[in-house]
# Entry
Amino acid sequence: MIEWKDEYAIGIPLIDEQHKKLFEIAENAQSLLLMPEYIDKFDEILSIVEELKAYVVFHFGAEQGLMEKIKYPKYFSHSIEHQDFIDEMNKLSLDSIDQDQQSHLLYIVNLIIEWITQHVLEKDRVMAAYYKEVQSKS
# Structure
């Protein structure tokens, strides 16, 4: 199962709490994926997709606000990655989700896991180190 571990923390409590919510959404998608395939999961998938879309917009806004506040030098490239994730979510089509529910659930789970491993654990950690450096100087 996908679950939050302390090793995923970047050391900024607000952002870590928000990242925990991403894990929760991924866990919900994975649980749905593991249910028998003959069950119609369309409404639940749409709920997960909508929750994820809304949550990342909220979370990315908070994270970008923090980066602006500390004048993070990699703000632009970091923000582009946020937008790329949103664009990926917006590519999901209702018709295609309904026609192949399992592969779309797998895609959503993998998208979140990839985001956590490639963005949160790498890019967000670099941003957090910069944040801590700025905080230590003030």
In short: The CA atoms of residues 34 and 134 lie 44 Å apart. The chain has a mean pLDDT of 94. Residues 11-137 form a domain with the Four Helix Bundle (Hemerythrin (Met), subunit A) fold (CATH 1.20.120.50). The two ends are 41 Å apart (CA to CA).
